[in-house]
Amino acid sequence: MLLTITCEGPHATDFGFLIAKNPASVFERDLAFGRLTLFYTENEPGRATVALIFDVDALSLVRGGNRAAALDQYVNDRPYVASSLTSVALRAAFSSALGGRSKERPDLVDTPLPLRAQVPAVHARDGAAMVTKLFGPLGYAVSVTPLALKSGRANGDDENLFSFEISGMQTVHDLLSHLYLLLPVLDSAKHYFIGDDEVAKLLEHGTGWLAGHPEKALITNRYLKHRQSLVRDALSQLTIEQPDEDAEAEAVEQALEARVRLSDQRIEAVVAALRGADPPLRRIVDMGCGEGRLLDALVKDAAFTELVGVDVSTNALAVAEKRLDRARLPAAARDRVRLLQGSILYRDRRLEGYDAVTLVEVIEHIDEERLDAVRTVLFTRLKPRRVVITTPNVEYNVRFAALPAHDTRHADHRFEWTRARFQEWCEGAATHGYAVRFVDIGPSDPEVGAPTQMAIFERSDRP
Question: What is the pTM of this model?
Answer without folding.
Answer: 0.54
